[in-house]
Amino acid sequence: MHVPRYGWEIAVATAMQESTLRNLGHLGADNDHDSLGLFQQRPSQGWGTPEQILDPQYAARKFYEHLVEVDGWQTMPLTQAAQAVQRSAFPDAYAKWQPEAEQLVAVISDGLDIVCTSDGGDGLPPLDDAGLPEGFVLPTDPQLRAVVSFALAQRGKPYVWGAEGPDSYDCSGLMMAAWAKGGVQIPRVTADQVHTGVAVPSLAAMQPGDLIFIPGSDGTMSRPRHVGMYIGTDRGGWQYLVQAPKTGDVVKVIAVSSWSQQVAAIRRPLPQ
């Protein structure tokens, strides 16, 4: 269904508040009634079966169907429009996510006016800047430039579990291949990569090429199973990462803020 860009921003901000963009199953004693999925929709309230709600495409479509039925939603403040759909006990909670939702939608939407300086680095093809954050510039350090350039050059290639390139990647395979371009051999799998190099204390302390770990769909904070690479900031200082997300998706750039509440570890591979 066709929904204007503002609708995307409302949906993303809502999912950030409800689930921090995680497709949550039932959380046992910590669960809010029978709430499930990205938008914490409830089967008992007519949102669908548990299986349907845990399908992100279905959940998003149901959210949009309810949103467009709200009279005047396109001129409402974001938090008011979200509350009209969600009927939350905390109606003002969505507002704080609006800046991050706008940034994330800007990254994934088409037709961005991009400014990026890149010759790809030594031995690398020129970097296609389409879809990169406005004002993004590759790192000046030659090694980090090669690592980040390679990772970004893989955008659009499909995720395939166990793949190490050149035509497809899984999350850790992409990290290994990118760092190999910088002359650094890192372990193959996420469970080992999370121990490579040195720890980075915070998101604010990151430099391009650092590896960011989150639980993913089948991991935990103590044993993360998904990894992405920090690439730098846009003109406004917003941070971004590149990742190979999951089966059915492709290598892409997303805002670090979409991961910020579930970061299990940050590691910096050591130069060799």
UniProtKB/TrEMBL annotation:
Name of the protein described by the UniProt record: C40 family peptidase
UniProt-recorded Gene Ontology molecular function terms: cysteine-type peptidase activity
Family, as annotated: Belongs to the peptidase C40 family.
InterPro entries found in the cross-reference section: NLP_P60_dom, Papain-like_cys_pep_sf, PG_Endopeptidase_C40
GO biological-process terms attached to the record: proteolysis
Cited Pfam families: NLPC_P60 (PF00877)
Keyword Magnesium: no
PANTHER family for the chain: NLP_P60 DOMAIN-CONTAINING PROTEIN-RELATED, PEPTIDOGLYCAN DL-ENDOPEPTIDASE CWLO
Ranges for domain NlpC/P60: 141-270
Keywords linked to the UniProt accession: Hydrolase, Protease, Thiol protease
